[in-house]
């Protein structure tokens, strides 16, 4: 069995206490769409996390890196990745005790196993939600292009912020574009703003990744609409991840 090792520099005592607390929670997380933590090692200078190795690397590499040149993701695979990743995040939000906010959901943190099944990874920035604070954490972390707008207003990381970040990942799957593509930066915009502008003009077909070729338009459109729900500016209007999973599952079940 092959392993992946993540090295983390040791910090102040309070940070290391948080590290150990996080490890305790991570050891209990068992889900087919979550990267399994197999073990860890501590030294005076750094900590090591040992994970199972994901053979196909990250979603980011498949969509934007060299992997894209050798293998194009077809629609069934993209749908499978969206649904699996949603199930993984929903598990963190709703089934873990205490609930967990990931805080850095992005395509490079969604890894793909040998069967292209997605696994949500990298809980280095994850926050355990206390029983009496089940909706937010006061420390903000994340990646530009994926951050929900309220982060900049409230300074709080929330479960609904994860929902927003997941919506950005779904847009990546649908458009094949990076959230901070150079073309967007040159125009002073970003993926979410660009897509919403196209939708307002009722030209949704122009944003779908050309490499998808022929694909079920109704399934793509429904997935598109779910992404837009996740990207509502008002966090209270966004669905929960459990609701996102149900909506994605219904796309296929309606055809059965």
UniProtKB/TrEMBL annotation:
Q: Which protein is depicted?
A: Protein kinase domain-containing protein
**Domain Protein kinase spans what residues?**
1-251
- Subcellular localization: Membrane
In what way does this protein cross or attach to the membrane?
A: Single-pass membrane protein
Gene3D superfamilies in the cross-refs = Phosphorylase Kinase, domain 1, Transferase(Phosphotransferase) domain 1
On the tree of life, the source organism's domain of life is Eukaryota
Q: Which organism is it from?
A: Gossypium mustelinum (Cotton)
Q: GO MF annotations for this entry?
A: ATP binding; protein serine/threonine kinase activity
Cellular component GO terms, alphabetical: membrane
Say if the entry is tagged with keyword Amino-acid biosynthesis: no
Q: Does the keyword Oxidoreductase apply?
A: no
Keywords in alphabetical order, please: ATP-binding, Kinase, Membrane, Nucleotide-binding, Phosphoprotein, Receptor, Serine/threonine-protein kinase, Transferase, Transmembrane, Transmembrane helix
């Amino acid at each position: 069995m092959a392993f992946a090792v993540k090295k983390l520099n040791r910090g102040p005592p309070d940070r290391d206490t948080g590290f150990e607390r996080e490890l305790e929670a991570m050891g209990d997380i068992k889900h087919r769409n979550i990267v399994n933590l197999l073990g860890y090692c501590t030294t005076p200078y750094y900590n090591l996390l040992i994970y199972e190795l994901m053979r196909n690397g990250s979603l980011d590499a498949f969509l934007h890196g060299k992997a894209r040149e050798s293998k194009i993701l077809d629609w069934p695979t993209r749908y499978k990745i969206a649904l699996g990743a949603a199930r993984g995040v929903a598990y963190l939000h709703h089934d873990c005790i205490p609930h967990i906010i990931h805080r850095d959901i992005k395509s490079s943190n969604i890894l793909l196993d040998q069967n292209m099944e997605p696994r949500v990874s990298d809980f280095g920035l994850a926050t355990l939600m206390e029983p009496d604070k089940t909706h937010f954490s006061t420390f903000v972390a994340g990646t530009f292009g994926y951050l929900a707008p309220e982060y900049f207003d409230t300074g709080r990381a929330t479960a609904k912020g994860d929902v927003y970040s997941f919506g950005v990942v779904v847009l990546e799957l649908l458009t094949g574009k990076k959230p901070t593509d150079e073309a967007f930066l040159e125009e002073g915009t970003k993926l979410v703003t660009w897509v919403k502008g196209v939708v307002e003009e009722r030209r949704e077909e122009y944003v779908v990744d050309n490499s998808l070729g022929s694909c079920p338009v109704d399934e793509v459109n429904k997935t598109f609409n779910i992404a837009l729900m996740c990207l509502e500016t008002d966090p209270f209007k966004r669905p929960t991840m459990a609701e996102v999973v149900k909506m994605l599952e219904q796309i296929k079940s309606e055809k059965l």
